[in-house]
C-alpha cells in the first residue's frame, strides 16, 4: 500500500501524514525531512543540497530518488508507506512506479490557495530538537519560542522566509499539473480541501483510506 500526499508547501501534508501513521501504522517518509537531516548532520549529501534547499529550488531527481529508494527498501515499509514531498516531478513519479509497483496506491492532493499558503508558512516554526511543526498563530506569546513537547528552540526554516516562499510556490506550480494528470490517468488521484480543521481533513482522508484498504486486502487479510 502506497499513500502519496501531494500539495503545496504548508498545505498540511506532513501533519496529515503523521495522523495517518498514528492510525494505520504505515511509516511516513518525508523527502524534505530526510534532506534536512542530512544538512543538519553535515553529511556529503547534506553539503551538496544545502544551498539548493535554501533557495527553494528542487534537489536533482537522481539524488532524491536514490535517497527514497534506500528508505522504502527497509523492512518497516513492506506493508505500506506514506510519501510526503515525493514525487515532486513527473520523472520522479515514473521512477517510483518502476522501483516499487504497489498493489494498492492512493494519491491524495491537499488543495490550498496560494494566499493561505503564504500566511501559513510565514507563521510556521519547527522545533530544532524533535522537528515538531508549530504555527505561531495558534500559540500564546509566551510559548512562541520553545517546543511544548521537548523544550527545544523553535526556529524558522531558512526556506520558509517570505522571500523564498514565493519561489517555492512557483516551483511547485511548474511541476504539479503534470504530476496530478499522471495520477488522474492512473485513476488513483483524489483531492481534499486543505483550508479546514486538521481533524476534519483527517476524517475525509480516513474514509478514503478505509475504502481502499478494504478493497486491496486479500482473503487472508494481508495487503
Ligand atoms: P519540503 O519539506 O517537502 O517542503 O522540502 C523542502 C525542500 O527539500 C524543497 O524545497 C526542495 O529543495 C527539497 N526537496 C524535498 N523533496 C524533494 C523532491 N522530491 N525533489 C526535489 N527536491 C526536494
Give the helix/strand class: alpha/beta
Strand content: 15-25%
Quaternary: single chain
Average pLDDT works out at 92
Rg, Å, rounded: 17 Å
Largest sheet at a glance?
5 strands, parallel
Tally of strands: 8
Shape: globular
Q: What percentage of residues falls in helices of 4 or more residues? A: 40-55%
Strand numbers in spatial order across the main sheet: 2-3-1-4-8
Order of helices and strands: EHEHHHEHEHEEEHEH
- C-alpha termini separation: 7 Å
Give an overview in words:
- The longest helix is centred in the last third of the chain and has 24 residues, at 162-185.
- This protein has 223 residues and is α/β, with parallel strands linked by helices.
- Helices cover 48% and strands 15% of the residues.
- Strand 5 and strand 6 (133-135) form a beta hairpin.
- Residues 9, 31-32, 35, 52-53, 56-59, 64, 85-86, 88, 92, 159, 168 line the site of adenosine monophosphate.
Features:
binds adenosine monophosphate, 5-stranded parallel β-sheet, alpha/beta, 223 residues, 3-stranded antiparallel β-sheet, 8 helices
Secondary structure elements and pairings:
Layout: E1 2-7, H1 13-24, E2 28-30, H2 31-40, H3 44-55, H4 61-72, E3 81-84, H5 90-99, E4 105-111, H6 114-122, E5 124-127, E6 133-135, E7 154-155, H7 162-185, E8 189-193, H8 198-216
Parallel strand pairs: 1-3, 1-4, 2-3, 4-8
Antiparallel strand pairs: 5-6, 5-7
Helix pairs in contact: 1-8, 2-3, 4-5, 6-7
This protein binds adenosine monophosphate.
